[in-house]
Amino acid sequence: MFNKYKKLNEIDSIKYVKEKMDLFGEDENLISREIGDGNINYVYRIFSKDRSSSIVVKQADKKLRSSGRNLDRDRIRIEAEALILEGELAPGMVPKIYLYDEIMNCIIMEDLSEYQIMREALLDGKICKNFAEKISDFLVNTMIPTTDLVKSPMEKKKMVKNFINPELCDISERLVFKDPYIDIEENTFQEDNKVFVENDLYKDENLHTEVLKLKNEFMTNAQALIHGDLHTGSIFVKDDEIKIIDSEFAFYGPIGYDIGNVIANLIFAKIRNLILNRTPNNFDIWITKTIKNTLDLFKKKFYKYLLKNTEENSIKTKGFYQWYLNGILEYTAGAAGLEIIRRIVGEAKVKDIETIKNSELKSKGERLGIAVAKDFIIRRKEIKQGKDYLDIFDEKFQEELYNEKI
Q: Which among 123, 248, 253, 351 is placed 20 to 30 Å from 2, CA to CA?
């Protein structure tokens, strides 16, 4: 029945799973719910009536679900292959992939309904135990093995070719590096921040120069296979476990892009908590420690992985390692700043800021985020450890507080 492409709906998704998988009985009464809340693909959760078994189907259509713009369906192949590879490199940290169907442009995968989206957990003030430990494992174990430090030149180049992802990269290049810095209708923020945004983003030519440098590296530095959209909305948590989803933006790019995105989204949680509570609490203590440890543990584990897994001894020399690491750290800080700015000003908002109901407090959160982000970008060469992010954050928080803007 599904031997040529057909866009699924809830009814067809049940028929599709029964045809492709033997998880459910032929006559079993199944329920399907469309659960995708993104802008790109369609996601269905199919489960038995007694909820004893369940599965998720993700399908790429030829048009974006948000805008109707045409988009190459090969993105689902890239996502499937990235998830399969990530599952091999970091076992248990991505959903199990049961089937990739190149005809229907579908992935059938493990249902993570027992987990919670990390952003929602943070909005609820939940502390995600051992997150820095887990995410640093994922970052090191999935990216470093795909670099020239570990892979042979021939294998690496074949992988770069396989994961060329022009249309999804084009979306990132526009939403991350271009749109937030020009006065366009798609950019939205609190009305009383209009002059602030015009002066600090639209008219700051020095900032624009630094953003273009980061964009150039994003487009030309095929350093490692990266997730490409790694934020707290693409991470599921349960107790001290994490699962990473949504790898459709995967491509060969700068390692620091993924790390910076993680740090930025942790900072959103810190901004929200301080804006709403004004004084540090247990959640702030945890999120602050997590921001610091995420970067510091990555550095420690990266070096350990390199010593064990590279076959070329010259790579292990202290001078080369430090030079390579400094490049990652510099891009990490820049990427963190880019992510914060584009999520505050651009189209793709984050609930951490958007769900602050008090208009005045929301405005303050926007200003604080932009001020912090600009320093991450401009001062990125100075940022070498997790504490440096926190020092800049505290500096800007106090600056805004004394100016009576917060």
A: 248
- For the full predicted model, state whether its pTM sits above 0.85: yes
Grade residue 301 by pLDDT with cuts at 50, 70 and 90. Answer: very high
Which is more confident, 292 or 405?
Answer: 292
What is the rounded distance in angstroms from the CA atom of residue 146 to the CA atom of residue 89?
10
Burial of 76 (0-12, 13-18, 19+ CB in 10 A): buried
Is 37 in the same domain as 184? no
Query: Within 10 Å of residue 392's Cβ, how many Cβ atoms?
Result: 22
Q: Which residues pair with 108 in a beta bridge?
A: 57, 99
15 and 140 together in one domain = no
Asked if residue 186 and residue 80 are part of one domain, the reply reads no
- The CATH number of whichever domain residue 97 belongs to comes to 3.30.200.20
Q: What are the CA-CA distances from residue 109 to residues 2, 14, 98, 106, 214 (Å)? A: 18, 14, 5, 10, 35
Q: What is the CATH number of the domain that holds 144?
A: 3.90.1200.10
Q: Look at 15-24, 114-123, 261-270 and tell me which has the smallest mean pLDDT.
A: 15-24
For residues 184 and 300, membership in a common domain is answered with yes
